[in-house]
Design goal:
Elements lengths: L1 E6 L4 H11 L10 H10 L8 E10 H8 L5 E5 L4 H4 L11 E9 H11 L6 H17 L1 H6 L3 H5 L14 H11 L1
Antiparallel strand pairs: 1-2, 2-4, 3-4
Length: 181
């Protein structure tokens, strides 16, 4: 699996304008990294104006299904496996068949998806696919990538019924400290 295409346009001035509007103020200057991180950490509604688009290629169908379960702030466009479109009987396609999976998502969705798909309870293949997205985000919006963390780091404890134990590891403490800044 790999990411064939990743797109994001810097619209921080629009995000800042919307933020200032919500508090009855006029627009301010282009935000610095500290302001960006504070807004993203607060998860205030203007972060939903920050949009991303990407396409995974050769993503196993069963991994694609994990991502399709996320519905808020994200749209999915997955290669069909319909027999009338592919001329391949659907029942002959194993769950491991690869698909092309394209997404359009906002920053809030990236934070929410990270909480579940970076968790050690998620499949390694799903974590790997999501890390590919996170690395692309890190290149263009490092403050957002810093906030794309697994559930236990986000909450400060593991809420899973059958947790993996990562929240007891030294690596957890490191991730938690980096997230909290």
């Amino acid at each position: 699996m790999h990411i064939e295409r990743f797109r994001h346009e810097d619209n921080w001035q629009d995000i800042k304008d919307a933020t200032m509007n919500t508090i009855g103020k006029n627009t301010g200057r282009y935000p610095d990294a500290t302001w960006k991180l504070k807004l993203i950490r607060a998860e205030h509604s203007p972060i939903r104006k920050m949009r991303f688009s990407w396409r995974w290629k050769e993503l196993p169908y069963w991994v694609s299904v994990h991502f399709v379960r996320h519905k808020i702030g994200i749209e999915h466009f997955v290669t069909t496996q319909r027999s009338d479109r592919t001329d391949i009987p659907r029942d002959d396609l194993p769950q491991g068949s690869c698909v092309s999976h394209e997404c359009d998502a906002d920053a809030q969705a990236l934070i929410s998806i990270s909480r579940k798909r970076l968790c050690m309870s998620a499949s390694p293949e799903t974590r790997k696919a999501w890390m590919l997205v996170k690395e692309q985000v890190r290149e263009v919006e490092p403050e957002l990538a810093q906030c794309m963390v697994r559930e236990c780091v986000y909450r400060g404890f593991c809420p899973e019924m059958n947790g993996c134990g990562f929240d007891k590891a030294d690596a957890y403490k490191v991730e938690l400290a980096a997230y909290r800044g």
